[in-house]
Amino acid sequence: MRHDDRRRRALRFAALAGLLIAGGLPCERAAGQDLRIEHVTVISPERSLALADANVMVREGRIAAIVPAGKDTDVRPGTLTIDGRGLDLVPGLIDSHVHLGSIPGMTDEQERAHLEIARAARDQIPRSYLYFGFTTLIDLISTPDEMARWKSQDPVPDTYFCGAAALMDGYPMNYLPKPQRYARAPYMLVEPQGGAPLPAGVDPATHTPQAVVARMKSDGAICVKTFFERGFGGVHDLPVPRPETIRALVGAAHAAGLPVLMHANSAEAQAFGLDTGVDILAHGLWNADETAAPGELTPAVRSILDRVVAAQVGWQPTLQVLYGLQDLFNPGFLSDPMLTRVLPRTLIDWYGTSEGQWFREVIAADIPGPDPGAALRQGLAVPIGRVAAATGYLTKHGARVLFGTDTPSAPTYANPPGFNAWMEMHRLLEAGVTPAQIFAAATLGNARALRLDREIGTIEVGKRANLLLVRTDPRQTVEAYAGIVKVILGGRALDPGGLAANR
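^ thats the sequence. predicted structure below, dont judge the formating
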């Protein structure tokens, strides 16, 4: 592949272009066998106190009873019993911002050239999310074929999707060539063009906010994803939507029962999202048109954060995104033993080849000086510091901080599935978020924000049995997720050893 072609591909992936069609209807979820967890301590975010020495019954994939130990008498023959003495039972985790169509760090062409490596990777990636306790994923942008392919794996986390309402020729559509971009964006928004001709085959009546939301709803989307992005990496003049367009989109989405997320990583974008009434700002506030020191929150930035708190808008920090670029230049990253738990050895070895380093080369080519890694770290110090400080500020002031990782944010191998979320937790700790707040954000907080709280997010009778059996209280330490005893997916008990890569 020529360098220019690789560069275009890198930008395309970095923008998540080509992932503009929402997936098909949710797949049928098989129920596990009847399950009884006895003498366990139940820790659930809606409870102020843990429930000690309880028996939890699971039938047909749902929680059937939560009773004091010794009080459950109706135990069916064939029920699997797990001794929970000394263990805690918590809800399965939810990552509210993932992208599941591609193998991190691989282009489509590279996948076709290395079918065995790619096949092993695609088989492992769902297991890697489960390995770290993520029983539910929200793919913010997908395609029907990609969702079907993802859900064909076994086991696979419960997965939902958003439809992507991108402005015609704006981000991220701009990274696809015409006319391909229009064919792959059925939820594209078309604004009045002032007499300018529309592309062939584009009917503006099917691309109004109301029409777009209606189509998403009929396709089974649970949310709407839209964008405010003027560009990056040398592109800074992309069209952005008008306020009245997004207000109409929000109104139509809310009428259909769908929350609206907005890609918004700048001060301008987050102010726009607040002005237009979106429900969730997807990304922390990386960029602001003012000079600041790392970790400094200027009055202008603080005013936006105060509006986030007042409006109780959901806020996804996605702190690990920028580290995923920095770690391309970390010579020790591919030697991290944790990688061998979430990626096949063949894929890790391929990342270390000159071909596997292609995205690093693309990034390095855009950075002047003899040490692109050092220059990149210096350039990212302010946005990383700003998001970390903003996350701590919002958490301290009672904002709705949600757990989402944007895995993978770009074609970087340094956003590995599952492990990326583990690293995100530690970034949140560094920013001042407590383990208890991370626990709430990744369970009930995400479930409520995506309107899934009738199904998941807590341990209550009638809810889907997506559960984790752990050795320590995750409200006290995130290390609890490094020692999961059992992952329970729809009542099906999974051994983490069987989920690990290279098993």
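Residues 372-396 form the longest helix (25 residues).
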